[in-house]
Amino acid sequence: MDEAVRYSRVNVGDVLPPLVMPPVSRLTLALYCGASGDHNPLHVDQDFAREAGLGDVIAHGMLIMAYMGRTLTNWVPQEAIQTFGTRFQAMTRVGDAITCTARITEKLADTLPDAHAVRVTVEARDQRGELKAAGDALIALPV
Fold this sequence. Notes:
By secondary structure, the protein is of the alpha+beta class.
């Protein structure tokens, strides 16, 4: 863990470094299908997506959640993340460039053995500012 990230050194309102991803491409979706095992045709088959009324394929919600998780793991090691939940708000389409932001919203002293916790809210928005997903995480930090 980065020694600078300690409970005593963070405050409610602190903002984590954002994660700026390149636009979602068809290749991104195909690679994510293989990595995740989620081969739902809504994510890779344009004809299927059009027949379903979507106009084109959409990104996996879990891909967007993975970007949000990466925002957290760029700040702390994965094992520091105690809980992480997401609410999906809007579909992400090919060409959408996702930016994830996160902010400390609560400090919770004496909540974990050998550590304190912070609650962090995380959001994923596209290049137009449309909210794609929002959630929060409970993160253990050394005192």
